[in-house]
Amino acid sequence: MDLHTPVGTSSSCSSGNVETEDVVPAVGIRTADDPNGHLWVSPSAPLLGERLGNIMTSSEQYRRGSYTRAEPTLGVLAICAIAYFNVCGGPWGSEAVISSVGPLPGLVGAIVFSVGWGLPLSLVTAELSSVFPDDGGYSIWVSEAFGEFWGFQESYWSWVSGVIDNAIYPVLAYESLIKLLDDDIFSLDDGDEYFSLGTAYMVKLTIAFAFTFPNLVTIREFGPGLSFLAMFVFLPFLVLSFNALFLHGKELNFANLLEVKHDARFGDWADLINLLYWNFSGFDCVSTCAGSVCRPSQSYPRGLLLALVLITLTYMLPLVASVAINDPEWEYWDEGSFVTIAESLVGHWLAVWMVVASFAGNAGMHIAEMFEDSW
């Protein structure tokens, strides 16, 4: 195995090779390989200890055998979009961040979790994905740190979690479809009026297959496709926020942002922490496709930090604008209140758009989760 490292060699990602710039020699760790099979380490991915210097990763063993590396096709936008849907997928359900204990602790908590939880997760994922730029991500990290047994446990239980999690999204998308068919976006109807039990199951199965189909075809269009879905999901909330802050005739009361729920119980604070933890978790999901990422030491930090900014804005903008309007009052918000606010503030068309965006958001979350688990 050649450990000599020619400095300054580079090649374009579009030709199937990963660019290598300003590289330094290292033993046993590679962040990108040139056509001749040299090992490289980027200065942006510091060594993780002397032990790593003597490790031969499982992916390197594959490459010494019959394993052939696919052409890297994913860039910054793809990483950003995959992280966006694995972590967020839209602000639905974030209404309880405000109604649980009040706007002030809810909004401050969102900022604290963004910086204190989301940012470290993003940086750790970016660093380790650069040190181990191979398909498998966190499963490889655990295997290298604790051995193959625990690496298998990580892989298996992450897959089980993904299967259970992904089963939710076709059902939620089906519920959005029923609201649109019923011409009542506030309806709680389960669809019995339109479909029998068997037909409803087949509709959900069809939705699940449609959501899975992109992963069966190609990953080349993942960046543009998921980026378009993310824009479509975010735009109605951007319209809501813009109308509330600049176009609506009602007087804005930013003093509402400083209110606290005085009768909040311990359970309410626990709900807030759990919700914020959930809303800013999942950045490591993009690590599983590292072997298909162009210039991982550059693409991962940029893509994940961009995703973190977009996710934070996705939560903060509609929450701040809606609290300033405070109609309906924040004490009575629950999941789905954004649709009610859009209906009263802007009009029925925006509320319908949000329901359609909900369908698209569930599609994006299913696609991104399936993409993660596929590796």
What do these coordinates show?
With 375 residues, this protein is mostly helical. The protein is 60% helix and 0% strand. It contains 14 helices and no strands. Helix 7 packs antiparallel against helix 14. The longest helix has 30 residues. The chain is globular and about 55 Å long. The N terminus is likely disordered.
SSE layout and pairings?
Layout: H1 50-53, H2 58-64, H3 76-87, H4 95-99, H5 103-131, H6 138-146, H7 148-166, H8 168-181, H9 197-217, H10 222-247, H11 266-279, H12 296-325, H13 337-345, H14 348-374
Helix pairs in contact: 3-10, 3-12, 3-14, 5-11, 5-12, 6-7, 7-14, 8-9, 8-14, 9-14, 10-12, 10-13, 10-14, 13-14
Could you give a quick summary of the protein structure above?
The chain is mainly alpha-helical. The chain contains 14 helices and no strands.
Looking at this protein, list some descriptive labels:
375 residues, mainly alpha, 14 helices, disordered N terminus
Q: What fraction strand? A: under 5%
State the separation between the terminal residues, measured CA to CA.
Answer: 27 Å
Q: What characteristic shape results from the CA principal axes? A: globular
Instruction: Kindly report the average pLDDT value.
Output: 80
Number of helices in the DSSP assignment:
14
Helix-strand topology string:
HHHHHHHHHHHHHH
Radius of gyration: 23 Å
